[in-house]
């Protein structure tokens, strides 16, 4: 898609799972990338992989999205090296799934700072630049769990923060729509990634209920390629067999890091 070639994007949680899959798709379309994730070695491997055959610039910047200083550094590197930020994809996240009475107290702040505040802070750092350029696309990975009322059992804290993120994304759209900036919330169902692949409790039958990353990549590409006067405000990408009353991922599990 020639309209995307030469644009610059920041992607968080970009070294594996959904983030890496999206990064690959953008790289194939000629988009320069700033990849943000916690582990430098994994970032370096991903950056080298994406550079091959794509004729783009790929920068790997170590970043814990729960730390404001790390987010500030990501934006600084992007502007210093690429001069312009056209696309921001907030994707980094952590999971903590327990019945509420068993939810580790230390997880509450970690979830809030990573799954909500990290998105809001990075958006706040990038938005003045996009306003100055009168253009930009912001995509927030929310969660299919926000479509359920009440939110799914054992996902109370995680999903409640995602509900807040959904509300933030909608509000940001209304504030930015007359400034040439698009805001899209993508709400994926449980996806077949490293996270779910490492869960010993996932059965073959349950595996069929996981969606592929390609469906989410397609949603991202749709959001980035619609006409300039169109903004997909929300895109839900859900497997029709998702059993909301009984989560695919059981809470009694060793949560992968």
Description:
With 257 residues, the protein is α/β, with parallel strands linked by helices. It has one domain (2-237): NAD(P)-binding Rossmann-like Domain (Rossmann fold), CATH 3.40.50. 43% of the residues lie in helices and 15% in strands. The chain contains 8 helices and 7 strands. The chain has helices at residues 17-28, 40-51, 68-82, 105-133, 156-176, 194-197, 204-207, 213-225, and strands spanning 8-12, 32-37, 58-62, 87-90, 136-141, 181-188, 234-237. A 7-stranded parallel sheet has the order 3-2-1-4-5-6-7, sandwiched between helices. α1 (17-28) packs across α8 (213-225) and α4 runs parallel beside α5. The longest helix has 29 residues, at 105-133. It starts with 7 loop residues before the first strand and ends in a 20-residue tail after the last strand. Residues 196-200 and 251-257 have low confidence and may be disordered.
What structural keywords apply?
257 residues; alpha/beta; Rossmann fold; 7-stranded parallel β-sheet; 15% strand; globular; disordered C terminus
């Amino acid at each position: 898609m020639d309209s995307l070639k030469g644009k610059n994007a920041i992607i968080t949680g970009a070294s594996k799972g959904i983030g890496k899959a999206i990064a690959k798709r953008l790289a194939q379309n000629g988009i320069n990338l700033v990849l943000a994730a916690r582990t430098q070695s994994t970032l370096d491997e991903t950056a080298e992989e994406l550079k091959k055959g794509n004729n783009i610039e790929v920068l790997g910047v170590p970043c814990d999205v729960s730390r404001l200083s790390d987010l500030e550094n990501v934006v600084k590197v992007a502007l210093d090296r690429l001069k312009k930020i056209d696309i921001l994809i907030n994707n980094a996240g952590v999971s903590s799934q327990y019945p509420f009475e068993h939810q580790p107290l230390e997880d509450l702040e970690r979830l809030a700072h990573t799954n909500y505040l990290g998105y809001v802070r990075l958006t706040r750092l990038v938005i003045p630049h996009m306003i100055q350029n009168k253009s930009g696309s912001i995509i927030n990975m929310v969660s299919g769990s926000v479509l359920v009322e009440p939110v799914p059992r054992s996902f109370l804290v995680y999903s409640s923060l995602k509900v807040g993120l959904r509300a933030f994304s909608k509000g940001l759209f209304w504030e930015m729509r007359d400034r040439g900036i698009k805001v899209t919330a993508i709400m994926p169902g449980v996806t077949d990634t490293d996270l779910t692949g490492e869960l010993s409790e996932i059965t073959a039958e349950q595996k069929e209920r996981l969606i592929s990353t390609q469906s989410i990549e397609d949603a991202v590409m749709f959001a980035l390629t619609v006409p300039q006067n169109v903004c997909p405000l929300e895109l839900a990408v859900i497997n029709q067999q998702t059993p909301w009353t009984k989560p695919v991922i059981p809470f009694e599990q060793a949560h992968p890091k």
